[in-house]
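Q: How would the structure tokens look for this protein?
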Amino acid sequence: MIQHTVAFRLKHPSGSADEREFLDATLEMKDIPGVSNFQRFRQVSKKSSFTFGLSMEFADQEAFDGYCSHPVHQNFVENRWIPEVAEFQEIDYVPFG
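A: Here is the predicted structure in token form.
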């Protein structure tokens, strides 16, 4: 299992229509084959400049690779993520122990 996470801050003003539209558009990712347990978060710690987070799980590397190369994901990255995200940190986890 791979847990794919990303914390980010948008270029849009907090509470703006542009912010809401971007966050709504992230829901497109949950319907890509192989994605499970899709979640969206608002970051609340004062220790981080990020404001939002996304998390999703994949059964294996093949499912994750399929997501990364899926046209819906690639379109979102090119047309929404790159122009609208100010900064981000992506972390992918696999269980151990």
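The longest strand covers residues 2-10.

The two ends are 13 Å apart (CA to CA).

Upvote if useful.
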